């Protein structure tokens, strides 16, 4: 399905229910759970240190199962062209999620090279980090506003940690954006109301153990998101 990111800038402002992304799908049952719950996006992680990491062949097998309506997002961390070429030549991906220290120039290069919508993740821990969001909104199709990973964290994201949502309360950017970081069915409504997010992303919060998605938790998360 073509992803309507350009229109989404307007669409996501006010219309329709808040959209959910379920990140770190690793099995056919996860894809089915995300789709049947009504998630708008499913994320595939290409980062070897993650418990959700997928080989290219495994990702391809999952991606072809995704129905129309579940946009397929490839999450990479400081990937070089060779890694991106390998992923995108085999896996039918709709959106690239850049979750490393990619500079604005690198984001622009990736957008130009692959012609896919790019969502740049920016970690937020304090007000200074919010400035980076303005910088990246000039070069990305979408922003992902995530908690900044602690320095000693094994992963740059997917740690189940939230940030102080008041830091972005009332903030708007020129691009569609998604809220992430420590979201669960129990806190997503509060996060949406406080930040005004129209899209939310979850990984750890719908898992029974790290890397293992739980279909009931996915359904509960999407229900809480839509009802917010
Ligand atoms: O999920 C991962 O394993 C991961 C690995 C490396 C970078 C980012 C990762 N996940 C992203 O992190 C945020 C927040 O996740 P959580 O809900 O707090 O666990 C989300 O955007 C994931 O896409």
Second CATH tier, the architecture? Alpha-Beta Barrel
The dominant shape is globular
Bound molecules: the ligand O=C(O)c1ccccc1N[C@@H]1O[C@H](COP(=O)(O)O)[C@@H](O)[C@H]1O
Q: Look up the CATH topology.
A: TIM Barrel
How far is the first residue's CA from the last residue's CA?
Answer: 26 Å
**Total beta strands:** 10
One letter per element, helices H and strands E, the order comes to HEHEHEHEHEHEEHEEEH
Helix content: 25-40%
In terms of DSSP E residues, the strand content is: 15-25%
Which regions are unreliable across 5 or more consecutive residues at pLDDT < 50? 1-14
Keywords: Amino-acid biosynthesis, Aromatic amino acid biosynthesis, Isomerase, Tryptophan biosynthesis
EC number: 5.3.1.24
GO molecular function: phosphoribosylanthranilate isomerase activity
Pathway: Amino-acid biosynthesis; L-tryptophan biosynthesis; L-tryptophan from chorismate: step 3/5
Structure description:
One of its GO terms (molecular function) is phosphoribosylanthranilate isomerase activity. This protein has 228 residues and is α/β, with parallel strands linked by helices. The chain has one domain: TIM Barrel. The protein has 8 helices and 10 strands. It has an 8-stranded parallel sheet with strand order 7-6-5-4-3-2-1-8. Strands 9-10 form a two-stranded antiparallel ribbon. α2 (28-37) runs parallel beside α8 (215-227). It binds the ligand O=C(O)c1ccccc1N[C@@H]1O[C@H](COP(=O)(O)O)[C@@H](O)[C@H]1O. The site of the ligand O=C(O)c1ccccc1N[C@@H]1O[C@H](COP(=O)(O)O)[C@@H](O)[C@H]1O has 28 residues, from β2, β6 and β8.
